[in-house]
Specification:
This protein is mainly alpha-helical. The protein is built from 8 helices and 4 strands. The strands form 2 sheets. It has a two-stranded antiparallel ribbon with strand order 1-2. A two-stranded antiparallel ribbon has the order 3-4. Helix 1 runs antiparallel to helix 6.
Length: about 180
């Protein structure tokens, strides 16, 4: 069975974030470490190396920690500088490094959890004006608001956790037949 490109649906950008919607997205980030942990905790070492398209589950876990660390820093830059140009990272090359390909996921899960605690603390203090602040992405040439970035980052959690859940449900169930 071919894995879907977007197991939780594609990302749909939106700058229309009222207080209720912002809180929903913050709640997704708050709950993301528990959801990711629940998805990977039952897996053994060989299962962590199952591929979802180009990356293994192990690489996806490391990618989430790496990517969300970048996102958190982008929020900090955008809150403390006037429309900063952020530093992009080549996620494919990062995922290809030995620590992502073969490293223990425990530290990545702990980083992801601690980072999300800090991030949610920060997000919970922000006003609508803060979410309207923007940064420039040098690769896409786009200017993104923190509100739009919040929507993307919440989707990103669900997207990669959804990949892991799809893979384990479909692959492990296939093996059980």
């Amino acid at each position: 069975m071919t894995p879907p490109e977007f197991p939780v649906g594609p990302y749909v950008p939106s700058d229309d974030l009222d207080e209720r919607r912002r809180q929903e997205l913050i709640d997704v980030l708050n709950n993301a470490p528990a959801a990711l942990g629940a998805a990977v905790t039952p897996l053994n070492e060989s299962q962590l190396d199952m591929h979802y398209k180009n990356w293994t589950i192990r690489q996806i876990v490391h990618h989430l920690a790496d990517s969300h660390l970048h996102s958190y820093i982008r929020f900090k830059w955008t809150l403390t500088e006037e429309q900063p140009t952020i530093k992009a990272h080549d996620e494919g090359r990062w995922a290809a490094l030995a620590d992502s390909r073969a490293g223990d996921i425990g530290p990545a899960l702990r980083l992801f959890e601690g980072l999300h605690v800090r991030w949610v603390q920060l997000l919970s203090t922000l006003s609508p004006e803060h979410f309207a602040r923007a940064f420039h992405h040098p690769e896409t040439g786009e200017t993104n608001t923190l509100g739009r970035a919040l929507g993307y980052d919440a989707w990103h959690c669900r997207h990669h956790t959804g990949q892991i859940l799809w893979l384990t449900r479909n692959t492990l169930l296939e093996g059980a037949k």
